[in-house]
């Protein structure tokens, strides 16, 4: 499992880097709005994460109709968790935003790893309707 965690972290760093670079390039060189640039960057990172985690981290032969919706669901859960933790810690409790981001940076990747390991890319699975 240590190997999977290392691969998961490496792909996460690559995906985050790709997100930022693509978003900046889209905004600065193609003059798209910041929100659109961020969305383009997110999609690029999402694609890298899905393929990288599926094939490299968890060694799955991806069946996109099965794995992709699950991965999208986990990504959405990560966004909701990130937002909820930020609201709770920084807004409701009045703690520092930096503390909120530290908790998010710890909690979201860990929960995402376990969702991916035990649900998104878990074996055995059935693709029967």
From TrEMBL:
Does the keyword Transmembrane helix belong to this entry?
yes
Q: Name one GO biological process term.
A: polysaccharide biosynthetic process
Q: Its topology with respect to the membrane?
A: Multi-pass membrane protein
Q: Where are the transmembrane segments?
A: 7-26, 32-51, 71-91, 97-120
Top-rank taxon, per record? Bacteria
Which keywords does UniProt give here? Answer: Membrane, Transmembrane, Transmembrane helix
CC annotations in GO:
plasma membrane
Q: Does the keyword Cell membrane apply?
A: no
| Pfam families assigned to the protein according to its UniProt record, in alphabetical order | GtrA_DPMS_TM
User: Residue limits of the GtrA/DPMS transmembrane domain?
Assistant: 7-121
Localization (cell)? Membrane
Protein family (similarity comment): Belongs to the GtrA family.
Question: By its UniProt entry, which PANTHER family does this protein fall under?
Answer: PROPHAGE BACTOPRENOL-LINKED GLUCOSE TRANSLOCASE HOMOLOG (PTHR38459:SF1)
Can you name this protein? Answer: GtrA-like protein
């Amino acid at each position: 499992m240590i190997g999977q965690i290392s691969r998961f972290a490496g792909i996460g760093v690559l995906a985050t880097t790709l997100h930022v670079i693509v978003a900046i390039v889209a905004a600065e060189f193609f003059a798209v709005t910041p929100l659109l640039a961020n969305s383009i960057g997110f999609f690029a990172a999402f694609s890298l994460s899905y393929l990288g985690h599926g094939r490299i981290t968890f060694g799955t032969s991806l069946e996109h109709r099965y794995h992709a919706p699950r991965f999208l669901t986990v990504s959405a859960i990560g966004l909701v968790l990130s937002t909820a933790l930020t609201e709770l810690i920084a807004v409701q409790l009045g703690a520092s935003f930096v503390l909120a981001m530290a908790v998010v940076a710890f909690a979201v990747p860990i929960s995402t790893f376990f969702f991916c390991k035990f649900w998104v890319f878990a074996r055995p699975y059935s693709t029967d309707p």
